């Protein structure tokens, strides 16, 4: 069996604690399972990172920026660099 994901789902995060649990749960509950979920935190000041870390799923990879970039572009690019899927999807 090939462990390489077909799809890489990249989620840039910054202070999204209100929505993140619903977002991650929705992605993980998809019937298509050959994906990786890359969560990239842009130095959130709320509980975003803690919520992301509360999920235990081997498809999830959590990354962090060194300092807040002020836009999701850097987080997207970090996610792209870490992606292994044939196709990329941004949430």
Structural key phrases:
four-stranded parallel β-sheet, 91 residues, alpha/beta
Brief rundown of the structure:
The protein has 91 residues and is α/β, with parallel strands linked by helices. It starts with 6 loop residues before the first strand and ends with a strand. It has three helices and four strands.
Task: Encode the helix/strand succession as letters.
Answer: EHEHEHE
Largest sheet: 4 strands, parallel
Structural Rg:
12 Å
Helical/strand content category: alpha/beta
Number of strands: 4
Q: Please give the order of strands in the largest beta sheet.
A: 3-2-1-4
What is the strand content? Answer: 25-35%
Averaged pLDDT: 95
Ranges where pLDDT stays below 50 over 5 or more residues in a row are none
Dominant shape: globular
Give the N-terminus to C-terminus distance in angstroms.
Answer: 28 Å
| Count, helices | 3
Helix content: 25-40%
Characterize the structure shown:
It is a single chain. The mean pLDDT is 95. The radius of gyration is 12 Å and the shape is globular. By secondary structure, the protein is α/β, with parallel strands linked by helices. Strands 3-2-1-4 form a 4-stranded parallel β-sheet, sandwiched between helices. The protein is 32% helix and 25% strand.
Furnish the topology, listing elements before pairings:
Elements: E1 7-13, H1 17-28, E2 35-41, H2 48-53, E3 60-64, H3 72-82, E4 87-90
Parallel strand pairs: 1-2, 1-4, 2-3
